[in-house]
Amino acid sequence: MRALLILPALVTPVAAAAADAVKDGPVLAAAAGPAELFVELVINGQAGGALASVIQDGDRLMVDSDALRQAGVAVTDTGKIDAAHWPGVRATYDAAGQRLLLDLPAELLPTRRISAPAEARMTPIVDTGGLLNYDAFLQVADGHASASVWSEQRAFGTIANTGIASIGGVRDGYVRLDTHYSLSREEQATEVTVGDLITRALSWSTAVRIGGVQLSRSFALRPDLITVPLPSFAGEAAVPTGVDLFINGYRQSRSDVAPGRFVLDSVPVVNGAGEARIVTTDAVGRQIATVIPFYVAPELLRPGLTDFSVEAGALRKNYGVDSFNYRRAVVSASARHGLTSRLTLSGHAEATPGMAGGGIGAAWAPGLWGALSGAVAVSEARGVRGTQITAGYSFTARQVSIGAEHVGRSHGFIDLGRFDLGLFTGSARSDRVSIGMPVHGVGSLGLGYIASRVRDGSGARLGSASFSTPLGRRASAFAAVDYDFGRSTVSAQLRLVMPLGRSTVVSGGVAHEANGSGRLQASVARPSPTAGGLGYSADLAWNTRGSVLGQASASWRASRVQLEAGVASSGAAQSAWASASGAIAFLQGRAFLANSLPDAFAVVSTGMAGVPVYYENQIMGKTDGSGRLFVSNVSAFHPSRFAIDPVDLPIGAVADHTETRAVLRAGAGAVIQLPVVYHRSVTARIVNSAGTPLVPGTVATLNGSRTATVGWDGVILIEDLAGTIIVEAGSGTAACHATVASPKDGSPLADVGVITCR
Fold this sequence. Notes:
Immunoglobulin-like; 6-stranded mixed beta sheet; 3 helices; Ubiquitin-like (UB roll)
């Protein structure tokens, strides 16, 4: 996707000044015969320091083509080129400055690509350790108590297992959910998973749970990769020019370009329609602005990029009920490939004994008008063939967003998700259209239409309209109307949202024409602060049948656990519940208690207590008595900044480095070393046997290995040595020896007084 920007040719002030300097004299000095000159090449007023040998022969200036290429001139000829008679080129020989001034057209200047500097990739780190996530839940309803504990056990970066242990419920005991082993290759952005997994699906295929092996592309491993095709903007400049790039009104980059063509590739990732504004500024401050619209379709892949997933194993049944219920063998494969910047192809295939299916699809962005997608899939099961046709359209802009999709399945079409259920007879279809747009100065409007027909012949057609608007500076209102075309009935709702301090109050009502029912509802909620604290919520509802429903809950988030409790009432039924969730991480030979840890985490080790620790410029706390601080919820595969604040370190405490960047793997932990050490120093005043201070500048040897220099009044500084220190000062007849006893529990700058050197 490329837009073209043409800048008018401008006369460079440097070239003009140079030309003025030599315009009164001849361009070429007369010569009796060929003469070799060594000159500096100045291209369109820009001197790059390139020297070239020029043969002056009468009115000709012969320059070697290799020298021109080295100076950045896009020439294809070989051998010597007569610069004085070069079509479209003005050559001026400045004899006084020993320069050859060349004014070249844009087609002879190189094309420069201006891209954001690529960040140096860092290897993810992971240390040996383990993790236990847990969520314990207790409920008492109508005098009956039940309890369950969900838990996850994980060995860093390798094996993970989840399950639920329950008592007093429908089934008592332990049910295993998922167990898998993962191996990641960040450089190739690939991942191998063995065990329980979910097959990867395209937008027009379905996913199933299996027990087996999966090889897939995982772009989450490489957040530095740009997967969607982004626009680039080309232009040309006749003189050295500054180029500013604005995307949707915000400046994204500024670059200085040399004369010639240039291509701007440093465009940030955006979705949907956008507007690029390119402002060029020449040496005298003249500006030219060019506005170029563009469209970025997130459905597409960058040209040449491939996303894929291949799975093989056994279909899992009764997930969440049975720990080991694997049935028929299955294989599945999906892939997407960016063919061009406007076209991405996709394909899928799957099979199990008695059934096989597959299809192909494509996503196409024709320009500034959104993206079209479509796919055709076929299947055959038990001698019955079927087809599925999928078509969609999406458009996103600041003024409007549109989405439409059609899915039609013929009689007999089946896939892995439905085959084992026997759902392979009868046709089905669904259609969906949605439109969202802001209403200037008022609010936002949403329209939708859904029509579906399932395999048994039943169906529904629904239309909806919603509108939200701010009320003053803080409150807002939301209204929605739904119409059932089949029943010719209307339902509507109206809600008022108003912040109250750190809480949010919501009130409103819902009415259904079909059964004449209605409901009034009010709620107040305050989420627990991320840094820790109290949160609560309360809901109360009354319907036209006279029933009153209500519930209330409170939560307390601490650094090591989150506690919740609540009660609910629904007519004659009442219940109460309580839960506790958190994690125990095992790292560096210690156990750390924390809130749930779905992502990566780290332990910052300084070796000193009370040191402030920062993660991404946010204060995380201070190190404990062992000099460590646990940092939870670190973004995996992102170069994260860890730092300490050395301002309040005690005297004598020194940090070799106060910050570092590290990349951590998902679901794993690592130790970040930012050591703080004490440098104990001892000062002594060395005098000779006559009591006279040693001469300043005298070199002394400490314990036979290290040296120190004697200062004024014989003062000597001894660093990082403990116990008895032997000092040998001077040399020859002036040499003497002294013994300094460093205090064991002295201050970092202890002064042991006068020491006699004999």
